[in-house]
Design goal:
Layout: H1 5-8, E1 30-36, E2 43-48, E3 60-67, H2 80-83, E4 87-91, H3 97-106, E5 111-115, E6 141-144, H4 146-159, E7 164-168
Parallel strand pairs: 3-4, 4-5, 5-6
Antiparallel strand pairs: 1-2, 1-7, 2-6, 3-7
């Protein structure tokens, strides 16, 4: 496995002809696995921002996925201390994708995962693009289906946990298809 965009994002090795929902190819996705809590121990699919943000230069075997407070992350975060050196989970809406990414970056986050605010969205990936302000962001920004974001947050609330533990990015080409544990609500 080679770190960087070519090794983690271009996952075409075993599935060169695989076209996913809405015309995206497997190399257009980035994968992460929730390790804890156990009831959502699945491999989730996300899409990287199209024209802003960084890439993963490191594989994090265990890092916290911290839901931002407030969830839309359009300004100061009340739990910003917990996001430092971790990955933030934020919700779409209220401000641009780039603004959310910059807020998380300013709080010391290593990356941001932005879930759709439509909790019934289990198949449509939104293309995250620059917001025309000429600002930049250096941390990776990923888009997550609304149903996935909702299920992660719901599990954390049910268990009274302040964060999930995840592994990111995950190279799915090294996992046999029958062992690829995807969330049952998003199987296609």
């Amino acid at each position: 496995m080679v770190p960087g965009a070519a090794g983690w994002c271009c996952l075409v090795l075993l599935f060169p002809a695989c076209v996913a929902v809405h015309g995206l190819h497997i190399h257009d996705y980035l994968y992460f696995q929730v390790l804890s809590p156990g009831d959502i121990r699945y491999i989730f699919t996300a899409t990287p921002a199209k024209d802003f943000g960084g890439i993963f230069h490191t594989r994090y075997e265990q890092i916290h996925l911290v839901p931002a407070e407030p969830p839309e992350a359009c300004g100061e975060l009340s739990n910003g201390f917990f996001i430092q050196d971790q990955i933030a989970l934020v919700e779409r809406g209220g401000c641009s994708f780039l603004s959310k990414t910059r807020v998380v970056q300013e709080h010391g986050g290593r990356a941001v995962i932005i879930s759709d605010n439509a909790v019934d969205n289990d198949s449509f990936y939104v293309e995250m693009i620059q917001d025309s302000t000429q600002r930049t962001a250096d941390i990776p920004a990923l888009f997550l289906l609304g149903r996935d974001g909702y299920m992660i947050r719901r599990s954390l609330e049910q268990h009274g946990l302040p964060w999930a533990i995840i592994s990111i990015p995950v190279n799915v080409t090294s996992i046999p298809t029958f062992e690829l544990l995807q969330p049952p609500w998003t199987l296609w």
